[in-house]
Structures are given as C-alpha cells and as structure tokens.
Specification:
Blueprint: H1 9-23, H2 30-37, H3 41-48, H4 51-74, H5 80-96, H6 105-112, H7 118-144, H8 154-173, H9 178-192
Helix pairs in contact: 1-2, 1-4, 3-4, 4-5, 4-7, 5-7, 5-8, 5-9, 6-7, 6-8, 7-8, 8-9
Length: 196
C-alpha cells in the first residue's frame, strides 16, 4: 500500500516555482528545491520521479496559469485590440511586480536551455502555440472591426506580441526599468492599430 503524501502539493509547487524562477532548471539543484519547499528529496522523488519530472510539473502548471490569465483578457468582455491592450498591460503589471522580478518561467526556460529535454521543450512549444492562437483570435476580431493595421495579418501580429512579451522577460532580468518596458509596449500597440 502506497504511503499518502506528507505535504501540500499546491504549496510545494508554488515554492518550487519560485526556486526555479530564481535559478532556472540548470541553476537550481535538488538541494535548493529541498530548502525552498521544506520537503525531503526522497519524498519529492517519490511523487515526481526526478528533478526533470518536478520541473515539468511546475512548468506545465505555470504555463496553464498564464494561459488562464490570457484567456481572461483575450476571451473576456473586451474584444479586438482592446482585449490585446488589456492582456499586454496585465503582462507588464505581472512581469514588473515586486514578487515576479525574475520574469516568466517559460521564457527563462527557453533562453536557458538550448538543449531542452524533449518533454520540457514540448511543454514550452505547446504554451507558445496556445498563446499565439488566443492572440490571433482577438487580433482577427480587431481586423474585422478595422482596428488592426492592414499591413499585418492577425497571425503575424500575434507572433510579434508573443515575441515582445517573452523578450520583456529577458530584458527585465537584465535590469531594464519598468517604465521603459511600458513605453515599448505602448509603441507596439500604436504600430498594431490602424491610424485613427
């Protein structure tokens, strides 16, 4: 008979997320994770198999939460470019808040791991694909409403936004100030919108 888990999985995953955001996959040892979550290594191995298994669980959960937030803005009460602007402003708020100065875990994983494990790489790719589709849908509405610049297809504009958002994570980690990020995002939105 299997022993019941001796820890709160949601709490452990929250704390492990913070540890991996600080050090990335390669820079975070299991000793670091143990210290961060307050649970012994063997208990973690019993549930997640190994460090990669725990990281994949953290990454999938983090990505799903990010997509849920994107859906609130992109599939919510606003449509078209207003929805896109709402999403971008929320991402900037999230990335520049004091408790998330380490940026996006998905972006960090893509940047830190050139030789990504297949499952980890697939998780990141799936997350990017879903975000692109959500944005393209909202941008298609914007095009239908005459709000999206005619020179851009919804798919191209979605790709620009995803590149922008993931790039923000990198430059924030490098020390670029939040007000510079906001100006950059405002400029992107102006370029995406048709001239008034």
């Amino acid at each position: 008979m299997a022993r019941p888990r001796e820890f709160d999985e949601e709490e452990v995953l929250d704390l492990a997320t913070q540890a991996f955001r600080l050090g990335g996959f390669d820079g975070t040892s299991m000793a670091d994770v143990e210290e961060a979550v307050g649970v012994g290594r063997q208990s973690l191995y019993n549930v997640y198999g190994d460090k990669a298994g725990l990281f994949l669980r953290v990454l999938d959960r983090y990505g799903n939460r990010g997509l849920a937030m994107a859906r609130v803005h992109l599939d919510g009460s606003k449509r078209g470019m207003d929805a896109v602007e709402s999403y971008l402003k929320e991402m900037i708020r999230f990335l520049t808040s004091d408790d998330t100065k380490q940026g996006c875990l998905v972006a960090r994983t893509l940047m830190d791991n050139s030789g990504l494990d297949h499952e980890i790489g697939s998780s990141c790719s799936a997350n990017l694909g879903q975000l692109n589709r959500l944005l393209a849908k909202a941008l298609k509405e914007g095009a239908e409403d005459g709000e999206l610049a005619e020179s851009l297809s919804p798919e191209t504009a979605a790709s620009l936004i995803v590149t922008h958002v993931y790039g923000l994570s990198a430059v924030l980690r490098a020390g670029v100030k939040a007000h510079v990020i906001r100006k950059s995002s405002d400029a992107l939105l102006r370029q995406l919108r048709t001239a008034d």
